[in-house]
Design a protein that fits this description.
four-stranded antiparallel β-sheet; 10 strands
């Protein structure tokens, strides 16, 4: 995509590659083979592709869970493509919210305590942690379940809790990997409606999905194939 000086980008990727190697140093697979992608601030982007197309690898790089083999990744004006693991960890905690198909909640903790976890690791004072966790749980419609544990919730409520946890750090970008994959259609629709609201509030939302109907909730859809962007098209909001 071409950029203009008037556009603010949440993320820009240039020539991003990701190679995996065998123990003997020979090339095993080229997961990404040269990705160029600009993601304007506040965009709702869906990423599609068959298994093995590179979409999970791309998501891991966008989320600073992995570093590219080559190329440059600019996240909000900072080049994060060559940062050390410790610096990437700080970036993840402060700027990126993750939502996975598996909810990854801690069964022994209440909803408030689960949502507070990222703030605990950032050293946020207890009173502020509690206030911010309650605010996000109320935002996702769980204000009456604050002291319940995950086992006492439906799948949709657990996913809402995971979304609240991803939002409690006030991230710049929300990354969702098949967020409705384990949910029934009605509950999945409720989660997607929440994403619509977050997007309207100005959040950058990136979602991996295999479901074309889900992808059409976005502004733009990019299709990956063999580690490259094969094409892009307008989503339902485009």
């Amino acid at each position: 995509m071409s950029s203009t000086k008037d556009t603010t980008y949440s993320a820009s990727l240039r020539g991003i590659t990701r190679h995996y190697y065998k123990p003997d140093g020979s090339l095993l697979v080229e997961a990404l083979r040269g990705i160029d992608l600009d993601i304007p601030q506040g965009e709702y982007l869906a990423i599609m592709g068959v298994s093995g197309s590179g979409k999970s690898t791309l998501m891991n790089i966008l989320g600073c869970l992995d570093r590219p083999t080559g190329g440059k990744y600019i996240l909000e004006n900072d080049d994060v493509s060559t940062l050390e693991d410790s610096d990437l960890s700080i970036i993840r905690g402060q700027r990126i919210g993750f939502i996975f198909q598996a909810f990854n909640l801690i069964s022994e903790l209440t909803l408030i305590e689960n949502v507070e976890v990222p703030l605990f690791y950032q050293g946020v004072p207890k009173a502020e942690r509690r206030e911010r966790a309650i605010k996000r749980l109320e935002q996702v419609g769980l204000g009456d379940r604050l002291h319940h544990r995950p086992s006492e919730l439906s799948g949709g409520q657990q996913q809402r809790t995971a979304i609240a946890r991803s939002l409690v750090t006030n991230p710049s970008i929300l990354l969702a990997d098949e967020p409705t994959g384990n949910l029934d259609s009605e509950t999945g629709e409720a989660i997607l409606t929440l994403f619509d609201e977050l997007h309207r509030d100005g959040m950058t939302v990136l979602m991996i999905t295999h479901d074309r109907d889900v992808a059409q909730r976005s502004q733009r859809v990019i299709w990956l194939r063999d580690g490259l962007i094969e094409r892009e098209e307008a989503g339902g909001l485009g």
